[in-house]
Amino acid sequence: MSWSQWSLSFAAFLPSGAAAAAGAGAGAGSCGGWECERSAELDPVLRLRRGQSQFCDIPFFATSDEALLQGPELLNKAFVIRSGGKLNLPAFSMKRLRARAKDRNLVAKVGYSAEIVENGGGGTHDHPLNNFLDSMMHENRLFGGVQLERPYMFHRVEAVYSVVESEDVSIPDPLMSWNWTKDNTFQIFALGGPGSGVTWHDHRAAFETVAYGWKRWFLYPSDTVTLGGSMGEYAIDDWLRVVYPTLGADRAPLECVLGPGDLIYVPEEWRHAVMNLADTVAVSTQSLLVTEVRRNNMAMGPAQAALKGDPSQQSKLIELIEQAPLDNSDRISMAWMIAPGDPAGAEAELRAALEVDPWCLEAMNMLFRLLTEGHFTSPAPEPVLLHLLQDFKPYLFNNTRNMAANNMLAAYYKLTRSFKLEGKALRRNLELSAKKLWAGSGGPLLSEADWKQRIREAKQRFLEAKRTSSAASRATTEPQVEL
């Protein structure tokens, strides 16, 4: 059964009250001291879909639909239970968190959307929790006049030093019937202001409950390509501004806005991302159970390790890639490993990855490096490189916070003798490096001193081209004197 057929078939079972509940999350009222009304100051592309502020593409249920929710087919489909969360709400109030922060000297593990994914699902920096609540949570960062994403607290619930206790969250009854217990799950506490979020990622099956606030969810089923979302190349706000507007209805993700008390279930291997629309407090519970789907993906690790020392394992890796032909992360891992001994094979894997997802910056950057850093007998001729970068340019042009994208743009402008634009792209990277504003997998490629040197070289090329042009212009306008 296709996703759309499944969604429609379950919509037919919804009680009349559940249809009305789809328009707004239940549990609105007391905000626990948080600013939990949706922020009208957010960029419209971050908070609206075609002008709408409330939408949900996935089936939703009421808590009274318990019999439906126990169907085994739901294990592999996303759904929402309106007012389905079982939380000890007072534990998530601003007052309670501040008291615990003071009593226990709690720290907040904080990061930005791509950093959290690269760090395996946790904040990357420790800050006193009250400092995060007082200032960091609503900090404003600008780049090129655009408000950037805000920091997000993403913190695993552990022992007595946690922000909340494990008993403050209960596993909903329907999921208990799937053998989810406290022993085979773990929890992540998430707190962020409007404009914070997490970029594209996947993991084992999970459900998340919103205590306070509003959260916009984006999801792709496991058998669907996540355009621009396979390798963490984009922060979620950049993805929404750069990639999302280009997607037709057939390539766009499923979406749903969750409100206070709502619960969402995300099957394993479904790629997803979130954007907070207000001060939002939530708890995610992830399963530790390993299913056959996850076991196949986990087999990639040993195969990759073995390949480094044993080329005979290459066939195993190819077999795994063929089982999941739309998973670009596997293809790119393959390309990295075989590049030293088989650059042509690596190039083929990267071009295949770009056929699947032309927004995949990781594949673009690796292919660019493969052709310019001597992996072949010699670097690619300039016409070959220019043709490659011309193909990439539409996908690089607006992704100004990814340093790898700016670096490739600078190379393109150098080849086309647009030296002023080359310098502009390089200066963007210098600013990103100095202010630590980069996002996605294109992190610091060079030191600030190296970027400054490359900017000086671009300026010299620009001035030399200008002098040459002026000299040529004078030569054509000066009168010719006959001797």
TrEMBL record:
Signal peptide annotation: 1-19
Composition-biased stretches (Low complexity): 468-477
Domain JmjC stretches: 160-304
The keyword Zinc is assigned to this record: no
Region ranges (Disordered): 464-483
CDD domains tied to this protein: cupin_RmlC-like (cd02208)
Coiled-coil annotated spans: none
Transcription recorded as keyword: no
Keywords in alphabetical order: Signal
InterPro entries tied to this protein: JmjC_dom, JMJD6_ArgDemeth/LysHydrox
Full protein name: JmjC domain-containing protein
Lineage of the species this protein comes from: Eukaryota, Sar, Alveolata, Dinophyceae, Suessiales
